[in-house]
TrEMBL record:
Region (Disordered): 1-42
Alphabetized PROSITE patterns for the sequence: G_ALPHA
A Pfam family annotated for this UniProt entry: G-alpha
InterPro entries linked to this entry: Gprotein_alpha_su (IPR001019), GproteinA_insert (IPR011025), P-loop_NTPase (IPR027417)
Chain positions recorded as Mg(2+) binding sites: S81, T254
Gene Ontology terms for molecular function: G protein-coupled receptor binding; G-protein beta/gamma-subunit complex binding; GTP binding; GTPase activity; metal ion binding
Biological processes annotated in GO: adenylate cyclase-modulating G protein-coupled receptor signaling pathway
Signal sequence residues: none
Organism from which the protein derives: Favolaschia claudopus
Gene Ontology cellular component annotations, sorted alphabetically: cytoplasm; heterotrimeric G-protein complex
SUPFAM superfamilies, sorted: P-loop containing nucleoside triphosphate hydrolases (SSF52540), Transducin (alpha subunit), insertion domain (SSF47895)
Protein name in UniProt: Guanine nucleotide binding protein, alpha subunit
Length: 437
């Protein structure tokens, strides 16, 4: 009966189930006793270590809950991961610095990817019956580059999460790929193959027929990111170390959610900075469901949109890029889970917009409502800013401030200033909200 067991245990009787288990075995020798006590001591130590780990994990979890969390949102190629790199460059420069060897491999991979796209374009051009800018000589040059092109698949096998080994570069979530690229012998061999053919690559790209073909086909390898065709001599030097700007221009598509912890570095110039987290997510249409679990835990969203009204989405060529961004922006503004969240809008890739306008882009051919406003950079940014601001005001469940910046995320200098201002603003609001709570 329950009562009798309890009362016997309280009385310390030998029927106590614990006492039975703790008692030394009958006839224990002195050596056995020493071994038993040592084992018990070890078990005790392990148990205390486990408790310590659990306590630490809980502390980390509690701290994470209290820390500011920032989510980067926007369509694919809007520049989310590039903005994250800018944050890392400013707030954790030592970590950023330690990754240059891995980025060198990404840059070489981006170069091989461009070469593959060019060779595929040449091949399809040669198959078309119309007059062609290129000839069998170019086909031969591509065949000569085969050893370099083969390396794309070899390196991707090391770091890619899927069987698709050609096409846009993406990696398994987490930082392991950086260690692999920086230290694996296979990757180093691949780099040697590219370096050994630098003259062939340079001569290939120096051919005006090849460049003209890419322009005629309107294949934007220049604008698409990860463009290093004009840097072959420099990036294939044996002692090449990527600059900050090279790393910002290197392209890896984000597949899973990447969580980055920003812990103050003592050597960091950014004094007074508190720890915070940034979440970088994939922007492709099919991956946007992955954003939702973060909505009720983040304090701020940096929403990126290039003003690419002249382009369509890569994953769905029926959808205009700017239209997609506007719909997303309205949804984010209207979401009630995010009603207390600070929204910061970046019009990104402004260098590309400026270059397009210089090259003769006519805005109202793509956006009829732009009408006869000045077809200039200021004209465009003013018009679209007012649009985004109006959606923000109309869709937000309750009033909130509108923060907006024009950015060129591959420009470290101008972006560093903006990142500093954004960081300050987010922490100012966080402090204000904490006081109110
Ligand atoms: N010219 C120019 N290129 C940029 C700018 N911002 C980003 N890029 C480049 O555009 C490419 C795509 O940027 P990412 O940061 O990878 O885009 P993302 O939003 O993370 O894309 P997903 O991971 O596919 O969702 C990269 O190669 C960048 O270097 C910019 O302001 N100007
Ligand atoms: Mg990304």
């Amino acid at each position: 009966m329950a009562t009798s067991v309890a009362s016997r245990a309280r009385g310390g009787s030998l029927d106590d189930p614990f006492a039975v288990h703790m008692a030394p075995p009958a006839g224990e020798t002195s050596d056995q006793r020493t071994a038993r006590l040592a084992a018990a001591q070890n078990a005790d130590k392990t148990s205390r270590q486990i408790d310590e780990v659990l306590l630490q994990s809980k502390k980390i979890l509690d701290k994470k809950k209290a820390d500011v969390k920032i989510l980067l949102l926007g369509q694919s190629e809007s520049g989310k991961s590039t903005v994250l790199k800018n944050f890392r460059l400013r707030f954790t420069p030592q970590y950023f610095d330690g990754e240059r060897a891995a980025w060198r491999m990404v840059i070489l991979l981006n170069l091989i990817g461009s070469l593959r796209v060019i060779c595929e374009t040449i091949e399809s051009e040669l198959e078309s019956p119309e007059f062609s800018l290129v000839s069998d000589l170019h086909r031969q040059r591509c065949a000569d580059l085969a050893p370099v092109l083969r390396e794309e698949e070899i390196i991707n096998q090391l770091i890619s999460p899927s069987k698709q080994l050609l096409g846009e570069l993406y990696v398994r979530p987490g930082g392991e790929w950086k260690t692999i690229l920086a230290s694996s012998e296979v990757a180093q061999n691949s780099a040697s193959v590219v370096l050994s053919m630098r003259d062939e690559i340079e001569n290939f790209w120096a051919d005006t027929a090849v460049r003209e073909l890419m322009e005629k086909k309107e294949i934007p390898i220049r604008d698409g990111g990860g463009y290093f065709m004009d840097d072959v001599a420099r990036i294939t030097e044996a002692d090449y170390v990527p600059t900050d700007s090279d790393i910002l221009r290197a392209r890896i598509k984000t597949m899973g959610v990447e969580e980055h912890f920003f812990e103050k570095e003592s050597a960091s110039a950014a004094r007074g900075v508190k720890d915070f987290w940034i979440y970088d997510v994939p922007g492709q249409r099919g991956s946007r469901a992955a954003w939702i679990p973060f909505f009720d835990m983040v304090q701020a969203i940096v929403f990126l949109t290039p003003l690419s009204f002249y382009e369509v989405l890569e994953e769905d060529t029926r959808v205009n890029r700017l239209e997609d961004s506007v719909i997303l922006w309205k949804d984010i503004c209207a979401n009630t889970l995010l009603q207390n969240c600070q929204l910061i809008l970046f019009f990104n890739k402004m260098d590309i917009l400026k270059a397009k306008l210089r090259a003769g882009l006519i805005i109202n051919e793509y956006v009829p409502s732009f009408a006869d406003r000045p077809n200039t950079y200021i004209g465009a940014t003013t018009y679209f800013k007012e649009k985004f601001k109006a959606y923000h005001k109309r869709s937000s469940p309750k009033p909130r401030s509108f923060f907006y910046y024009e950015t060129t995320a591959v420009d470290t200098r101008s972006t560093a200033k903006i990142i500093g201002a954004v960081h300050e603003e987010i922490f100012r609001k966080h402090l204000h909200d904490s006081v109110l709570i």
